[in-house]
Amino acid sequence: MSPHRPRALAPIVRVPGLDYDVLDELLGYSLRRAQVAMFGAFHEATRGMDITPPRFTALVIIGANPGLSQSVLGRVLGIARSGAMVLTDWFEAQGLVERKRRPNDGRAWGLHLTRRGEQRVASLKARVRRHDLQRARRLSAEERRVLLRLLEKLCG
Amino acid sequence: MSPHRPRALAPIVRVPGLDYDVLDELLGYSLRRAQVAMFGAFHEATRGMDITPPRFTALVIIGANPGLSQSVLGRVLGIARSGAMVLTDWFEAQGLVERKRRPNDGRAWGLHLTRRGEQRVASLKARVRRHDLQRARRLSAEERRVLLRLLEKLCG
DNA sequence: GGGCGTTTGTTATAGACGATTACAATTCCC
DNA sequence: GGGAATTGTAATCGTCTATAACAAACGCCC
């Protein structure tokens, strides 16, 4: 029916009694594991809605920055232009995003949420935020703040 | 020449002047961005060595837990058994890992590093650790410790 | 000890995702 | 104006991973 259906990512379980050696000291590995864990929360939040992380990010970015181009969208997502186009095609087919010509630049499209897209992204934001908080409930509010700050600092 | 050559992952750049809306408050997104950034360090560390993150993890795990089975390896990596097998096939073709029959269990193989595999993993660990530290140099030693602890706590 | 469900490795197949390349239209800059 | 750069588009390829099906070996239970 739907062209793509987001699948659950297999969790990276910590096998008891196994020696993880240097992996526990590496930020790269720890971040990967944490990211997969949080992806699980995302998957729950968007179950049955045909939404993947890149799609969610794209909808939020377009909603907050109406009129941006596909190239910029690709740069934000860290994918090539061709991928940004496939994404936009899908959004358009779903009636969530529309391309509008720009008066000053005949090359680039301007991306905008449709009315339906706005409703969808509002709903998604609420769900994703709720599940993100829920999955990270082992952290206190203070710890969560610290974590976000350190991640921000890490990426510069 | 080499069958697979790991490619660099496009970085997720922070486009200046763009509104990221709710994304900055989501652990899932922040973790993803940080993970991609640290993946860049990994890519540098292993340039030209035909090593991907799963391959590195697998080599370290096999080295620290000789005799483990392909199924357990798959569980550690968060991939299906079939994937663990493709991985093991590749290691064997490279002469880094060998499968040995187990006396008590005729189904599962026991995975072991070869002499060459041991040398390779020792070299890789040193390089990856160095680049991991280097890429995260914006963080003080204390901040790095805190970050690792929070990530550990998050995953439970 | 016989039988049945489970686990493991294996193989083949399919799908998702993104990169790469090439091309045409447009814009920018000297 | 004219050449370099940017944008969208299309076609193609490669990599990774899941899924399903199968055979062999194991464990359990009576």
Name a few traits of the molecule:
homodimer; 156 residues; mainly alpha; two-stranded antiparallel ribbon; DNA-binding
Molecular structure report:
2 copies of one chain form a homodimer. Chain A is mainly α. Helices cover 57% and strands 6% of the residues of chain A. In chain A, strands 1-2 form a two-stranded antiparallel sheet. The first copy, chain A, is elongated, with a radius of gyration of 18 Å. The mean pLDDT of chain A is 91. Chain A has helices at residues 27-45, 53-64, 70-77, 81-94, 115-135, 141-155; strands at residues 97-101, 109-113. The longest helix of chain A is centred in the C-terminal third of the chain and has 21 residues, at 115-135. In chain A, strand 1 and strand 2 form a beta hairpin. Chain A has 6 helices and 2 strands, in the order ααααββαα. Chain A binds a DNA duplex (30 and 30 nucleotides) through helix 4.
Largest sheet of chain A: 2 strands, antiparallel
Number of β-strand runs of chain A: 2
Can you tell me the residue ranges of chain A where pLDDT is under 50 for at least 5 consecutive residues?
none
* Structural shape of chain A: elongated
Q: Structural class of chain A, please?
A: mainly alpha
Largest interface: A-B, 66 and 66 residues
H and E string of chain A = HHHHEEHH
Question: What is the CA-based Rg of chain A, rounded?
Answer: 18 Å
Helix content of chain A: 55-70%
Terminal-residue CA separation of chain A? 42 Å
Helix tally of chain A equals 6
How large is the share of residues in beta strands of chain A? 5-15%
- Oligomeric assembly: homodimer
The overall pLDDT average of chain A reads 91
Strand order, main sheet of chain A: write it out.
Answer: 1-2
